[in-house]
Write a structure and sequence with these properties.
Layout: H1 9-13, E1 46-47, E2 58-72, E3 81-92, E4 100-102, H2 106-120, E5 127-128, E6 131-136, E7 147-153, H3 164-172, E8 176-181, E9 188-190, E10 196-198, H4 204-226, E11 246-256, H5 258-269, E12 273-279, H6 287-290, E13 296-300, H7 310-317, E14 323-328, H8 339-349, H9 354-364, H10 369-389, E15 406-409
Length: 410
């Protein structure tokens, strides 16, 4: 399982999601023109941002605390009911007066700051962590038959925030995206009231089974939400029109690393998920040998594919529906997280020690971050557009000069 090799200086720190604020203007493809700059003249601070989403819609987000009282948490003793935090990202109808949601909530940010500073051996006190482009609890844009739904599961010991660059972009193009923190396996999870839970280092196969159960529980709670209920454990007020906004006849799922493995496994168990994508994760569950009869996308880094991962080769041979393998040139395992667009600029922002720089390069590869993000966004959206909306822009038909870093693997 590719997550097992995650223990580089930066991967362990979870430093994805860092990028310098820049001068210049946002381009239509999500890049930000200009050079890195500090937060303000004479402040001595570095302001961090996330890549600009490319979609035409405004974005809202809300977080929900879910409790599965039918299960006991397998990672803690004495065991208590399984608790999860999820975020829902959606097209918003009105963002007036709504603040931009933080990338991480306050207590998680404080712990994350300490961990990053220790692992990078670089003070982070002058770093302002990013905010997202989504407006907190903004009302949901009404659509006659609801919005198609996509679930996201992050890598092992990783927070749901690490997929923000891809998640926001899908929401800006009309999807409701639900991101899941797998508590006590994720590195940091903050619950309402500032309670923070941290993770051990579980066996990946055990974690995979728990993740699959987590995801199916979330699917059930989304049905409850869409029917008019409020699954939040504290009963907090939901964004206006969130209830009933989901088109649960059109659900997809993607994930990074073990999160992609989770997507495949859940699809094998639950026919509510119509299409899935695995971003650079080996396939280790029983689905590797049983396969799927629904569309599945494999996206690998420059050194990962069916040619050297037997689990991919076996899984591929048992896929009976639409299937495609893509490879991203000059990329590495963490290129498929926020570490790619943000880590390259972090390297230029701070005086990192040589071993930290080497670990960063090993984690995200040498591909230009703007190009990497643009390609990932385009192919993920084309995949879900085709299989959840029936829209074919033919990007998935073969190599495109717009994205020369993507190779189609026969």
């Amino acid at each position: 399982m590719r997550d097992i090799s995650r223990r580089s200086v930066l991967a362990a720190a979870g430093t994805a999601g860092l990028v310098l604020a820049t001068t210049g203007t946002a381009r239509a493809d999500g890049r930000t023109a200009g050079a890195a700059s500090p937060a303000g003249p004479g402040t001595g601070r570095v302001r961090l941002t996330l890549p600009v989403p490319t979609g035409p819609r405004r974005i809202g987000t809300t977080s929900l605390h879910l409790i599965d009282r039918s299960r006991r948490d397998p990672w803690i003793s004495p065991a208590s009911p399984r608790e999860l935090m999820i975020s829902v990202w959606y097209p918003a109808s009105d963002i007036h007066g709504r603040r931009r949601a933080p990338w991480l909530p306050p207590a998680a940010t404080a712990l994350y700051r300490r961990r990053v500073g220790q692992d990078l051996r670089t003070p982070m006190d002058n770093v302002d962590f990013p905010v997202t482009h989504a407006r907190q609890d903004a009302p949901v844009e009404v659509r006659r038959h609801g919005h198609p739904v996509v679930l996201f599961s992050p890598g092992l010991n990783t927070m749901r925030a690490m997929g923000t660059s891809l998640v926001e972009d899908l929401a800006g193009h009309g999807y409701v995206v639900v991101t899941i923190d797998h508590t006590h396996e994720a590195s940091i999870v903050e619950f309402p009231g500032g309670r923070v839970e941290v993770g051990p280092d579980p066996d990946p196969l055990d974690a995979l089974r728990v993740r699959q159960d987590d995801t199916r529980f979330v699917l059930n709670e989304l049905e409850r939400l869409n029917a008019g209920g409020n699954p939040d454990a504290e009963g907090r007020r939901l964004p206006h029109r969130l209830r009933g906004c989901l088109d649960l006849s059109r659900i997809g799922m993607f994930g990074h690393s073990i999160g992609g493995d989770t997507a495949a496994g859940v699809m094998a168990q639950d026919r509510r998920i119509l299409a899935g994508a695995d971003l650079d994760g080996s396939v280790n569950g029983t689905v590797r040998d049983t396969g799927l009869d629904r569309p599945f996308l494999l996206m690998g880094n420059s050194t990962h594919g069916r040619f050297n991962d037997p689990s991919w080769a076996t899984f591929w041979s048992h896929l009976r529906g639409w299937r495609l393998e893509l490879r991203l040139r000059d990329s590495a395992h963490q290129t498929y997280t926020d570490m790619s667009p943000l880590g390259q600029q972090l390297e230029r922002a701070l005086p990192l020690p040589p071993e930290a720089v080497a670990a960063l390069t090993g984690s995200i590869g040498t591909i230009d971050a703007d190009r990497a993000v643009a390609a990932q966004r385009a192919y993920l959206r084309a995949f879900f557009d085709l299989h959840l909306r029936g829209r074919d822009d033919h990007l998935l038909s073969g190599p495109s000069p717009r994205y020369p870093d993507i190779a189609f693997i026969p």
